[in-house]
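Subject: Predicted fold for B-cell receptor-associated protein, 206 residues

User T.R. writes:
Posting the sequence so we have a shared reference for the thread.
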Amino acid sequence: MSLQWTAVATFLYAEVFAVLLLCIPFISPKRWQKIFKSRLVELVVTYGNTFFVVLIVILVLLVIDAVREIRKYDDVTEKVNLQNNPGAVEHFHMKLFRAQRNLYIAGFSLLLSFLLRRLVTLISQQATLLASNEAFKKQAESASEAAKKYMEENDQLKKVKLEKAEREAVAMRKQSEGLTKEYDRLLEEHAKLQAAVDGPTDKKEE
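User M.O. replies:
I've generated the structure tokens; pasting them so everyone works from the same file.
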């Protein structure tokens, strides 16, 4: 395997390892988000788009080159004189096998590049949604606690007003009872005085 295809194969293995690592279930999206926001990753992301475009162009060129090699070594019976070159068929088959292998390596590397980029984007979006969900949940809990506190204060205020109204009603009733007693007492005194005044007048008339 030539140097360039060894590098592509190594890159493919690294992509497979990265995809498997990102798919580990017990690592939460929040932890991945923290890793993505680290200084080293942010430095890589700064030049990530340019690197990604260059990588895609290189892999596409390698795929095209592999397809060209496959077309070159295909149909060996039409291109080689089997009687004069008995070992040429094996040689062409070996070249065809290498071209097909290179096509698979470059093709899967290209596919995993898009998959890896999409996977990182989805994990980041999921972490953002989880953070937003927690913020909304805390906000809802805070609003619920505030509403509960307001209702308790409102009930307490109603209770205080009701107690105050009851005390005022009791005081007014007692005051009314006192006025009634005082009025009855005055009536009795008035009746006594009237009787005292009417008594001597009746005796004089006799």
